[in-house]
Automatic annotation (TrEMBL):
InterPro entries, per database record: Homeodomain-like_sf, HTH_TetR
The species this protein was found in: Dactylosporangium maewongense
Domain of life (superkingdom): Bacteria
Keywords, in A-Z order: DNA-binding
Keyword DNA-binding: yes
Keyword DNA-binding attributed: yes
Protein name, entry field: HTH tetR-type domain-containing protein
HTH tetR-type domain ranges (all copies): 17-77
Residue ranges the UniProt entry marks as DNA-binding: 40-59
Length: 193
């Protein structure tokens, strides 16, 4: 007699989890289209195929919803940026692909840095990028000796979203040329150490 009840409870829990994730993904999609402050619960609910009341039942408030969406996006970004350690070309292929996917969105976030909620996103994002540089280029940094912090700073700049923007958006270069130019920068930094 317990089996049907257990199945029903599990099905409900699965449906609740799916709705929860669908709402979070709706927030992330909307945040790629407009400023975070412009996103309304009505839009989120509509995009997720649910009601505002359901959104509030899951998250309690718009602030809690945005906070949880930030956590999910951060986890997605970290996974997206995984790159082969010590492989300059491979690492740059990963980071340029990441910027092709999220670069314009990240630039929009950086433009909203004055908002404490956005600052809470971009601050850790900047630290994540620095750690990425330290991890991905660790063999080259270990071999270079000298002033490690200076090399890391230069590599952070050469692989930053703003470097991508200058080449890709401002200069209008294609992704492959942008990647090649970033590769030339990184190589010059590592060789010139």
């Amino acid at each position: 007699m317990d089996a049907p009840r257990t199945y029903t409870m599990r099905a409900r829990a699965d449906a609740k989890a799916a709705t929860h994730l669908r709402v979070l993904r709706a927030v992330l999609e909307l945040s790629e289209e407009k400023m975070t402050i412009e996103i309304t619960l009505d839009e989120v609910a509509s995009r997720a195929g649910t009601s505002v009341q359901t959104v509030l039942r899951h998250f309690g408030s718009r602030d809690n919803l945005l906070d949880e969406a930030v956590r999910l996006a951060s986890a997605d970004v970290e996974e997206e940026r995984r790159a082969p350690v010590g492989d300059v070309a491979g690492a740059l292929a990963v980071i340029v692909a990441h910027y092709e996917r999220r670069g314009d969105y990240v630039l929009r976030l950086l433009g909203q840095e004055h908002d404490p909620r956005i600052a809470a996103v971009v601050g850790p994002g900047k630290l994540l990028h620095r750690r990425w540089v330290e991890d991905v280029f660790r063999p080259q940094l270990d071999a270079a000796g000298g002033d490690r912090d200076t090399l890391i700073d230069l590599l952070v700049v050469a692989t930053d979203v703003y470097a991508w923007k200058l080449l890709r958006r401002d200069r209008g270069l294609d992704a492959a040329t942008t990647q090649a130019r970033m590769h030339a920068l990184v190589t010059a930094i590592l060789v010139g150490k």
